[in-house]
Amino acid sequence: MDQMARMGLVEKIPLWRTRGARVYYRHRSSLASILLRLDEEYGEGQALPSSSEIFSYLGLELQFFLGELLAEHKGLKRAYTILPGGRGDIDIVLMRKRRPVIAYEVKAGAISVKEAKEIVEKIKEYGVPKVGLVSLAERPPEVAEETLGPEDVVRVAKDLASRKKRTSSTLGSPPE
After folding, report:
1. Which of 71, 86, 99, 131 could join 78 in a cystine, given CB atoms 3.0 to 4.6 angstroms apart?
2. pTM value?
3. Is 36 helix (H, G, I), strand (E, B) or coil?
């Protein structure tokens, strides 16, 4: 897997506070990742995946995409956490050296105030100093240190793109 990561085929994402494992490997292509998961689950069988299973895989790819975007935007290293005892995961953990700076929960839909408070409490229990909420449906409730709605995500992506464009033009590279 390390050789595939060096070739750029898979991405090696560090795991933070996850028992037994140090890294999580994922295919660099979100589409290929989803197709490989579906093939692994259903192979040549007659059963077809439910739409909820497909949306679950899309949600995982969404959180990895947003984690990469936010890490690059903030100049931090991205990690992922699988919580013990079947308590789920922390979608995005941004680290400086080996310490968490902020962790995010990502939702494609809306986040209620009650759900937002529970998320903040759960993440803080793991010693993360700041919590962020990201919703692609609407701006999340203001119960965390950082909240990002769909317009904010677009703004971050545009800021990062213009920063990259300026850097490449400064270096004399042709624009992408």
Report:
1. 71
2. 0.81
3. helix
